[in-house]
Each structure stands twice: as C-alpha cells, then as structure tokens.
C-alpha cells in the first residue's frame, strides 16, 4: 500500500512497476527530496517499435540509389559511396533502439502543491515546472501503437504562446486521473481558491 510521507510525496511499493514513485537523481536540476513518478515500462516497447519503424522508413528513403546501383539499373556513382547514407541511418537507428530503455527510465513527473514537474532527457536533461494556475488545458492523446499497449500521452498546455509539456507512456487510468486532477487544480488556482 502506498505511504504518504511527511513532505507529501507518495512512495510506491516496489521499483520497476508502472506508476512507481522512485528517486531519479540529478542534483544539478532536481529539487531536494522530490520523488518522481515513472512512466509505464511498456513505453519502452512502444519507443523501440517506433524507432524500428522510423529506421526502416529512412532506410527505404535513402537506400534506393544503392539498391538501383547494386542491381545494375543505375551506374551513376560507386556503390560504396551510395551505401554511406543507409549505413548512417542504420547506425543512428540501432543506437536509438539501444538507448530507448534508458531514455524511458529518465522520464518522470511529480505533483507538488502549486505545480507539476516533468523530467526527461538522457544526455540533455530537462526539468519543466508547470504552475497549475498557468495551465490552459490538459490533453490526453493515444496513438494506435500506444492503444495496443494500454498507454497514452498527457499534454499540458500553458498560458505561454505555443508552450506545452508532455508525459508519454502513461497508463490509461493514470492519464485520466492526471487530466481530471490537473484540470481541477488549475481551475481552483485560477478562481483564487
């Protein structure tokens, strides 16, 4: 059963399960004592499948000249030079797929009294603070791939023009809860309650 600490963050029972509240540590950008809620581990599979589909698409886009040269239909450039773009796409795609689990583990969010924090990023880490009173609306979107894994993306639109933050890989029930809770908190702070 989750426990509420003296500071207010909820701590989940075990690491690695959906909705866990676990410490993601980076002292440079993380507030002290904050406990992050991670996204679902199933988001790794969605990210890997999306990365593979993107890699196959870009291989087809940049690889057709090499295929034409390899079959003898086109002899405009040496085959070795024509293989460089597909090789680069393949390297980037493989790296993206290999780093997907770590990228997903770096995503987290934390609800505080006056604001919501969203954390993401591996190499370039970022924490976005969204005051509840500045939220214009909360949008939940589900792609066909996410739907098949029971996941959604929560998008938070703020009063700043074109400004928004998103939390991908949230389970459907948690996405609905976040939408209702964040909307209610935003309306309450906007009304001055």
How would you describe what is shown here?
It is a single chain. The strands form 3 sheets. A 5-stranded antiparallel beta sheet has the order 3-4-5-6-7. It is 42% helix and 25% strand. It contains 5 helices and 10 strands; from the N terminus they run ββββαααββββαββα. The protein is elongated. It folds into 2 domains: 3-39 and 108-191, PH-domain like (Roll); 43-102. A hairpin with a 3-residue loop joins β5 (108-111) and β6. It has helices at residues 42-71, 79-82, 84-105, 144-148, 172-191, and strands spanning 3-4, 10-11, 21-22, 36-38, 108-111, 115-120, 126-131, 135-141, 151-158, 164-171. By secondary structure, it is an alpha+beta fold. Residues 1-16 have low confidence and may be disordered.
Task: Give me some keywords for this one.
single chain; 193 residues; alpha+beta; PH-domain like; 2 domains; five-stranded antiparallel beta sheet; 5 helices; disordered N terminus
CATH class of the largest domain: Mainly Beta
Radius of gyration: 21 Å
Beta-strand residue fraction: 15-25%
Instruction: Please give the alpha-carbon distance between the first and last residues.
Output: 31 Å
- CATH architectural arrangement of the largest domain: Roll
What percentage of residues falls in helices of 4 or more residues?
A: 40-55%
Contiguous uncertain segments of 5+ residues: 1-16
CATH topology (fold) name of the largest domain: PH-domain like
Domain YdbS-like PH: 105-182
Keywords: Membrane, Transmembrane, Transmembrane helix
Transmembrane segments: 44-67, 79-100
Protein name: YdbS-like PH domain-containing protein
